[in-house]
């Protein structure tokens, strides 16, 4: 009786061990072991540099870098910024404003410099200098804008002046008028010289060939 119990217990223990080993093997085969790869950290986006500089009113952006047509395009694309730049109750620039502002920056840094540092007198200058940062502009304006500066006395076009095309038209008209006047004066001068030459030639001929003296026939005829 005791011997049978021991044999049964040994057999049962072997079976239990076999089952345990089988379960461990199945667990190891059924559960994949994956390495824990840390996710790459995304660096935070660098903030836009604040505009901490300003330029004297005796200078401006050269029209060689931002001409009148480009200035007009800048004004058109930033019309959405006007409310923020002229009304202190508007808390932030609109999406339309920033889209236009960044569109200009992608095309011409010089025109963004013009818009930022030489805006219309109706714009709040403090807000104007904040606009690049608020719209997420990455360009370092304080570092790049000085390369486009010229003295106002040497500038060929004033920023944001509505009469610029008229000034250019008057300049062209005055040039054409001066050329026309010079041509007319030259023609008159040539005509006067030709007239003097003709008169001189006639006088020379008159001296060389004096007119003959006319003698009346005697009374009664020639007989």
How would you describe this protein?
- The protein is mostly helical and 223 residues long.
- The protein has a domain at 59-159.
- Helices cover 56% and strands 3% of the residues.
- The longest helix has 45 residues, at 164-208.
- The N and C termini lie far apart (209 Å).
- Mean pLDDT is 74; it is low at 1-12, 31-44 and 157-170.
Features:
single chain, 223 residues, mainly alpha, two-stranded antiparallel ribbon, transmembrane, transmembrane helix, signal
- The total beta strand count reads 2
User: What average pLDDT do the residues reach?
Assistant: 74
Number of helices: 8
What is the helix content? Answer: 55-70%
In the sheet with the most strands, the strands line up as 1-2
Unreliable stretches, pLDDT < 50, 5 or more residues?
Answer: 1-12, 31-44, 157-170
Query: Distance N terminus to C terminus?
Result: 209 Å
Shape: rod-shaped
Please state the structural category: mainly alpha
* Gyration radius from CA atoms, angstroms: 49 Å
Largest sheet, in brief, is: 2 strands, antiparallel
Tell me the strand percentage band. under 5%
Element order: H for helix, E for strand: HEHHHHHHEH
């Amino acid at each position: 009786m005791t011997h049978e119990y021991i044999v049964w217990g040994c057999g049962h223990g072997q079976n239990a061990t076999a089952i345990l080993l089988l379960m461990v093997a199945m667990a190891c085969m059924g559960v994949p072991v994956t390495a824990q790869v840390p996710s790459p950290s995304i660096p935070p986006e660098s903030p836009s540099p604040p505009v901490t500089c300003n330029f004297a009113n005796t200078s401006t952006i050269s029209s060689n870098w931002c001409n009148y047509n480009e200035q007009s395009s800048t004004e058109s694309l930033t019309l959405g910024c006007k409310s923020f730049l002229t009304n202190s109750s508007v808390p932030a620039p609109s999406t339309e404003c920033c889209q236009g502002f960044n569109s200009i920056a992608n095309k011409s840094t010089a025109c963004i410099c013009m818009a930022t540092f030489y805006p219309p007198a109706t714009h709040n200058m403090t807000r104007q200098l904040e606009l690049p940062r608020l719209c997420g502009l990455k360009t370092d304006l304080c570092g790049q804008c000085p390369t486009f500066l010229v003295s106002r006395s040497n500038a060929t076009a004033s920023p944001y002046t509505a009469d610029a095309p008229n000034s250019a038209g008057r300049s062209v008209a005055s040039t054409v008028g001066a050329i026309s006047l010079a041509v007319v004066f030259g023609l008159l001068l040539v005509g006067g010289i030709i007239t003097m030459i003709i008169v001189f030639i006639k006088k020379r001929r008159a001296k060389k060939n004096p007119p003959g003296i006319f003698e009346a026939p005697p009374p009664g005829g020639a007989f």
